[in-house]
Amino acid sequence: MISNRPLPGAGDSAALPLAGQLALVTGGARRLGRTIATELCAAGADLLIHYNRSHSEAEQLATAIRQSGRLAWTISTDLQEQSATERLIADATTLTGRPLDILLNNASIYAESDVSSVTMVGIEQQVRINASAPLLLARAFAAQKRPSGCIINMLDARMVDYDSQHLAYHLSKRMLLSITQLLALELAPTIRVNGVAPGVILPDEGQPEASLEAMVRSTPLGRHGEPSDVARAVRFLAENNFITGQILYVDGGRHLRGRVYGE
Question: Are strands 72-76 and 102-105 parallel, antiparallel or unpaired?
């Protein structure tokens, strides 16, 4: 259950590094997206919470953000629809009455598939939401012609190795990695583009917390992380104005064991 208590640390606007900035977090109503939105709020940002079907959770989070002293809006868009995705930034500025300063591409889908079962439809669906939507949103974000801006894409530490049970997902995140690095060059010098790649942080949707323990053996630190670890990494990249084109792994060192790509 989502608490409606005021979020900590969001009241002293003058001392907050992101005070006055407006952040759009896609998939911001639940799981990592909610924690990231909360962290950006604590840094002083106002929040636009995107969701697809999680209306109730989005509204509860927006209420909590408002109670903390920041501004918050919710907006629903199906990122599988290209035209709706292309309109999202414009719709966001119409709703809030101001341009965006931060775009956090967090929304994703995570479906099982392997070499023997993957279909072209499955690959296209994963790519559409996990890679194409962030690209379209970044392009629309840049079209605002702001003097500065920040885009952060949520990746996955496993993209440098191989997740054999989620082939289409793996391919889509590899694509988003390339998009992140290309955009850092294409949108400079006005817009910084970085990525955060979480490792073992949350159990898969619908799985118990205990299921994380089966995966900690893959991390050099021998434990799983917390959503707050990822959120603080996002905040760091949002606040630092001289970092672009970087991928920040929040995975306990898991990416160092990659074997498929030799990275």
Answer: unpaired
